[in-house]
Amino acid sequence: MGALDEPLKELVGDRTAKVLADGLKLRTVGDLLHHYPRRYVERGQLTSLDELEVDEHVTVLARIEKVTLIPFRGRKGDRLEVVVTDGRSKLSLVFFNQGWRQKDLRPGQQGLFAGKVGLFNRTRQLASPDYQLIDDEEGSSAAKQFAGRLIPVYPASAQMPSWKLALCVEMALTKHLADVGEPLPAELRAEHGLIPLPEALELIHRPRDQAEKERAQARLRWDEAFVLQVALAQRRAADSALPAVPRRPVPGGVLDAFDERLPFTLTDGQRRVCAEIFADLATEHPMHRLLQGEVGSGKTLVALRAMLTVVDSGGQAVLLAPTEVLAQQHHRSIVEMMGDLAEAGMIGGSEIGTRVALLTGSMGAAARRGALLDMASGKAGITIGTHALIEDRVQFADLGLVVVDEQHRFGVEQRDALRAKGEQPPHLLVMTATPIPRTVAMTVFGDLETSVLDQLPSGRSPISTHVVPALEKPNFLVRAWERVREEVGKGHQAYVVCPRIGDEEEPAKGRRKRKEEPEEVGGADGEERRPPLAVVETAEKLAEGPLAGLRVEVLHGRLAPEAKDDVMRRFAAGEVDVLVATTVIEVGVNVPNSTVMVIMDADRFGVSQLHQLRGRVGRGSAPGLCLLVSDMPAASAARARLDAVAGTLDGFALSRIDLEQRREGDVLGQAQSGVKSSLKVLSVLEDEEVIATARAEATRLVAADPALEAHPELRTALESLLDEDRAEYLEKG
């Protein structure tokens, strides 16, 4: 065990070590040294108090303006009120029955004050905060601790304020800085002008000025990028060493017959991406490719051509979809595209065709047995299904390709379980309709080669998007329903999307979120809100009110499978005018006659989710219209997000906004959003050049030294990055 693996109790004692472990998950000396300051303040440079958020645990540098001791009326005790200021705004500090603190807290003094921001009588305050006074006297412990340098402000906890953390870090630096290894190769540090790691750790915690802080961050940014990319490069190298059956196109096979029947010409982008996939399928190692593209760019067609190539070579392909609605939609559209090529062995079926099976969890017993038999016998060259495909009883004769649609909705174990059904590792194609910034593709999906479809097929119509401020301008909402009636009057159809199903569902609190519920981002800016609008109630009100006389139907995840399929069939056939639905229609649903979508409570959805939803309209020759209905005030952050969606159809631009809203998450974790990030200095949005260069350097190093035998310190850094959970994630990828 290295010195940096030493438990913190050896350094700071049992009590402090427990506080660090419980509140901040810091357990070793290495954890503490890599717990970097969140920001820095200069003595005399006071914290901007008007930016503090309620319920946030903060450390502020401020000046005491006023101190007042107020006895309680009619009972013993008192309240000490201290007002601190940054020169513009004020913050109240409240201490109960601690009048003796008047001796410490005097007007004019500066100090660090730490606590949780609360509200009392509409005034922000810290109740019983920790504090450390900082004056200019030589004898001040704080003056000595931070003499001549920036004051670090650490991510802290209620029991461990920032300056106490700073003292712990000081002890670790004094005792263990000499034990810090050097994971980056010397030639790489020299080429990129990076300071040694021990110096970087000292400067990140003890910078004298901004320049020293930036030099430290530049080095630590490289550490995070490079170690992560080495892990992914090792994963890619291990994958490329596995055996796989090459799957090459066969002249005169089902793919050629399918291509001859296509009523349109492939776009240049589709041809390019198909060529990349076909080249991967022809190798003796498993393909690992991410196919991402704009809504409606034709990813399903590209995936189908890949699946037909595998069928021509004698193998089977499977498409894993996240919901039954999407699986049924894929099955229906693929069978329609293939025609008699999907009916091998049936009356009227093509002699060179195959069968397309569907397997979902709620199928009837007879249909399920038939699908399982076709898969096990090899009659079904293509199978489309949901999580039901992962069950043990599901067997394939020769599984050659796994296509995962909307990968972010599946856990790693699910994807791995399906791939394990092949005698040799099958080829893998991961699809997502959520555009991913290049740097995220190089981190979250860094073990996959990436293909991008950024060209829409000809015939796709433009989509105009507008925000409808329902509270501020009720007449705008009235006009929205008039527009729906106008489109239906022209022979078109409409979607109305709501955040939830209806009042009869179990309360949101304490239950698991359904896949079709919105990935809610941003609330009411601190205000209480009414419950989100529901499909069932909205459909009833519309059918009785502004859309009376139109054929209105509902679609959501709790309908029986037969009912869902029936509604979608009738909607696709033009027998339904308005479909009121949850986000089950978010991806894959293709009804070209639909021209308008109204999204209720649009501010409750994420940016990328809104972009996905509006991609359901404008899929035919008529232009599309998307109306984002919201009660949020014009100045709110929620409305700013909606304005961003309305302002562009560029999914890649919106994905950056979405990522900024959600934060980067743990790029190696399965959740991939909303959790504490393993990246402390590196930003996957802002540091594209560092990530791209680190990827190239890591690929080169791993190619020359796969086991990192010549780089023991790098191997140690890799082991500390990859705890058991993350190592398992990379293994299964």
Automatic annotation (TrEMBL):
Residues 280-453 form the Helicase ATP-binding domain. NCBIfam families: PRK10917.2-1 (NF008167), PRK10917.2-2 (NF008168), recG (TIGR00643). One of its GO terms (molecular function) is DNA binding. It comes from the Bacteria. This is ATP-dependent DNA helicase RecG. PANTHER family: ATP-DEPENDENT DNA HELICASE HOMOLOG RECG, CHLOROPLASTIC. SMART domains: DEXDc, HELICc. The gene is recG. It is an enzyme of class 5 (isomerase). Belongs to the helicase family. RecG subfamily. Its EC number is 5.6.2.4. The keyword Ubl conjugation does not apply. One of its GO terms (biological process) is DNA repair. Plays a critical role in recombination and DNA repair. Helps process Holliday junction intermediates to mature products by catalyzing branch migration. Has replication fork regression activity, unwinds stalled or blocked replication forks to make a HJ that can be resolved. Has a DNA unwinding activity characteristic of a DNA helicase with 3'-5' polarity. Coiled coil: none annotated. It catalyses: Couples ATP hydrolysis with the unwinding of duplex DNA by translocating in the 3'-5' direction; ATP + H2O = ADP + phosphate + H(+).
